[in-house]
Amino acid sequence: MPVARFARAATTRALAAPRPWSGIDPAKAQEDMKVVIITSGSRGDVVPYAGLGARLKAAGRDVAIATQEAFAETVRDVGCEYRWIPGDTRALLGSEEGQQWQRGGTGRFAAMRTNIQMGMRLLQEMGEGVLSAAHGADILLLQRTALWHGYLAAKALGIPGMALELFPSVPTADFPLPSFDVRFLGRWGNRNIPRLAIAASRRIRTKMDGPLREFQRKLGLPASGLGAVRAEMLRDENWPIHHGFSPSVVPRPADWRPGVEVVGNWWPPYPRGWKPAAELVDFLESGPAPVFIGFGSMTGSTGERLAGTVSAALREAKVRAVIQSGWSTLTGAGDDVITVGDVPHEWLFPRMAAVVHHGGAGTTGAGVRAGVPAVPMPILGDQQFWSERLVKLGVSPGWTPMRTLSPDRLADLIRRAVTDRSYRERAAAIAERVRTEDGAARVVEAVRPQR
């Protein structure tokens, strides 16, 4: 159905609050359920949902995953229907605007303008893609980039929905949210500053409200804007929010409302038929366990400088290394270094002495599950939150922001992670608990028809 026609049809539906959450309509046969997952962003924003889609498919659901074209084959490889969402995150991160965003980091005042610009672009792109992707859905499962538009579409169309978050998203006294680092105000600030900011945004209209208000009008909903929609989601007990990280890493806060859960990681699918390259196997067998270094989908114009810094740190720390090129096209040279492309972390990380990474949610989870020490180098978003969490858990000797990285600092952290047995012992103990968790099963159960 064309998007415009689909939107007109939506306005004829009941526009009251979402119907009470009870999973899928009991009258729906399991094999007829259409589950639509909507996600976009970097690889780390997509592959956990592909793994979740595969589990839902195995449980008898009819699953579609809507995401950017770059990940269409990832979706099809797990046997799910692919639906298109606009955008090209790799191109966006590589643009001048995206570079400024990454240089700005998280929580810095200087980065606020770029964050707003990036948010505006996302809001302008996402609306029609979400509306089109939701066609025929019996339930919507929404990653953060699709959350505002998806919540509104679910509300207008009377479709049950659920937020699926990869990092803590609901204010709590236990810790500051990744986007609101207000620890200097203690537990009161942790819980209340985000809520006050949301309340203020309901009264002060900004340019970012425009695209969402237009989307609300298109659906026949009252035009309220970003802050009002977010406040509604947070208090709406008929709107479940499931967090896909380990409760052994971040326990569920007691002050979260009912329906907000920490269920465990949604692991990426293991590539069908994948085998490690002979060159990589030979390298791993030819000496002591190496250190992994990779920054996932983070990209930058300083690749050469970063490669130089990493190479100098490896020489100083006197360790072997597997360098994953990723979107930054990072490389390394020498008898003690090998550069690889995509290699499943599930296979690679248990063979490492330590993992050096950007602190993304997925890479953090994979390192914890592998039971190896970590050296995080956060760039933006929730990465600093996970970096600090790894230190608090005792599996990391410390972290350093990418923008201030030096060879001496990186070498020191690597050396401590590899030589101090306490980090590996603590990592192994946590890994035992993480391996018993099944976050995907929790979501599968949540969308089961209630008969």
UniProtKB/TrEMBL annotation:
Gene Ontology biological process terms, A to Z: carbohydrate metabolic process; vancomycin biosynthetic process
* Recorded superkingdom: Bacteria
Positions of the Erythromycin biosynthesis protein CIII-like C-terminal domain? 333-445
Q: Which InterPro entries does its entry note?
A: EryCIII-like_C (IPR010610), Glycosyltransferase_28 (IPR050426), GlycoTrans_28_N (IPR004276), UDP_glucos_trans (IPR002213)
According to the entry, every stretch annotated as the Glycosyltransferase family 28 N-terminal domain falls at 35-103
- Which Gene3D superfamilies does this entry report, sorted A to Z? Glycogen Phosphorylase B
GO MF annotation list: hexosyltransferase activity; UDP-glycosyltransferase activity
Any Pfam family hit: Glyco_transf_28
Task: Kindly provide the name given to this protein in its UniProt entry.
Answer: UDP:flavonoid glycosyltransferase YjiC (YdhE family)
Q: What organism does the record attribute this protein to?
A: Actinopolymorpha pittospori
